[in-house]
Design brief:
The protein is mainly α. The protein has a domain of about 60 residues. Helices cover about 60% and strands about 0% of the residues. About 0% of the residues are buried.
Length: about 120
Amino acid sequence: MENEARRRVQVLSSHNVEELRAFLKEKANEPAPQPASYTIGGIVRAVFPELRELRKRGYTLNMLVRIFEENGMRITATALSGYMKKLNREAEGASAIEVRKARTPPSASGSQSGRHLAMKPDVPL
């Protein structure tokens, strides 16, 4: 019976729509709520502009890892590098797939890598 009550169609008035619209406009003017907890990837994303600036000023990945450790967060240089590469691509507006496609031109026969064999017809088509 409880499920049936939830499945009934709600009929609402235009007044309800206007109230919701006004409420949403209020929310749009407020700052976004901050999450109660972060993953390490979320932290890297949140401080990415600062990390990027430090890298431009000559900080190495290991130096940045030490900064994280000094602040009670554990991350490896490899993980930090991966996050930063991904965030750099996003900042430049290119997805990881677009970047990979641009880097690796397709082979004409498919057999250039040495691992794959391409079937070629005996008779020219």
